[in-house]
Amino acid sequence: MNFGKKxxxxxxxxxxxxxxxxxxxxxxxxxxELNKHxxxxxIATNDVVVSVCQNITFNSLAxxxxxxxxxxxxxxxxANPSSPFTIKRGASGNLFTVQFNVTLILKxxxxxxxxxxxxxx
Length: 121
Prior knowledge:
Number of strands: 9
Number of domains: 1
Strand content: 25-35%
Strand order of the largest sheet: 1-2-5-8
Largest sheet: 4 strands, parallel
């Protein structure tokens, strides 16, 4: 069994055991990539998992929209849970604005609001 088939087998086993389908977004490495995937959550019909594969400074502010289907969860996680990556605020304002009725899970990531940096708020 090749590597791709093993991954597909494991994913299908998880779907069968967990009872839900989810979308796994490829590992993101820049604020533009992360913002693009956060915006795409608006059309999600399944739970979405975004993996962060390096430290990211967010130079724009992110608005997490309401998903197309009620009850859809957005999870942002580090690609390597034993060595969490940091998402750092790089602009004035809220790092994330989460819409009402959105379920956001932050797992194995460090959120740095840059309190001691150049931003006063």
